[in-house]
Specification:
CATH class of the largest domain: Alpha Beta
Number of domains: 2
Structural class: alpha/beta
Shape: globular
Low-confidence stretches: 217-230
Order of helices and strands: EEHHEHHEHEHHHH
Radius of gyration: 18 Å
Mean pLDDT: 91
Strand order of the largest sheet: 3-2-1-4-5
Distance between the termini: 40 Å
Strand content: 5-15%
Helix content: 40-55%
CATH superfamily of the largest domain: Ribonuclease H-like superfamily/Ribonuclease H
Number of helices: 9
CATH topology of the largest domain: Nucleotidyltransferase, domain 5
CATH architecture of the largest domain: 2-Layer Sandwich
Largest sheet: 5 strands, mixed
């Protein structure tokens, strides 16, 4: 039986893409991931994630990753559809890997609803059973493997940005990231293309209308639960 894990990386970042990755493996081989030391990517060092990235690819029967660029994130945040686009991309990843069962890390406050949404978006001939949970990356080694693939893929994207811009980790909690944006705002009124313009951090630094104000102006109403901008 082929099982798959799906997770994202970079949802809260103000800089760079949101990455969704999937890893598929025969159930009988799952212990190999555990023996390799696969864990939730958040508790691993960058060096250890890189090491495990290579091991996971070697062990897995299939894997894939997809990046959602900032402009796509922004358009979906303004339409309170970020959870929906994540569900679409997760369904796309699962449909590529064609597992019998897929475990997904739910970004919706209602994990059952999120699982049903992903299931409804699967492309034929995929008929995988979707198992949706909160914190699935800390509960299932196959999802932990996907979290590592997603995190390393995103880290590499941020590293490419850092070749020219000192954006730090890209998260609004990182002083280096905030300092870069504040310095950039002193030089130009427009945020860089690799920044998420729908994030409150950008609105505050660049003096732009907030996402909530834009939604009121467009008549689109409130965001759905779990869709708050950062």
């Amino acid at each position: 039986m082929l099982v798959c894990g799906v997770d994202d990386a970079g949802r809260g970042s103000v800089i760079g893409p949101l990455v969704i990755a999937g890893v598929a493996i025969e159930r009988r081989k799952l212990r190999r991931l555990s023996r390799a030391g696969v864990q939730d990517s958040k508790i691993l060092s960058p060096q250890r994630r890189e090491e495990l990235y290579s091991e996971i690819i070697e062990i897995a029967d299939g894997w894939t990753a997809t990046s959602i660029r900032p402009s796509v994130i922004d358009s979906n945040v303004y339409r309170h559809m970020l959870n929906n686009v994540e569900a679409q991309r997760m369904a796309k990843v699962i449909s590529r890997l064609l597992p019998d069962t897929a475990y997904v890390d739910a970004c919706d406050v209602n994990f059952r609803r999120f699982g049903m949404r992903v299931s409804s978006m699967l492309s034929k001939p995929c008929s995988a059973k979707i198992r949706s949970y909160h914190k699935a990356d800390s509960r299932f080694v196959i999802v932990a493997a996907a979290s590592i693939i997603a995190k390393v893929t995103r880290d590499r994207a941020i590293a490419r940005i850092r070749r020219r811009h000192n954006v730090g980790s890209g998260y609004p909690s990182d002083p280096k990231c905030v300092a870069f944006l504040e310095e950039h705002a002193r030089r130009t009124k427009s945020p860089p293309a690799f920044a998420r313009k729908s994030w409150e951090t950008i609105h505050r630094i660049y003096g732009l209308p907030s996402a909530s104000a834009r939604r009121r102006g467009s008549g689109r109403g409130r965001m759905a639960p779990g869709q708050l901008t950062l």
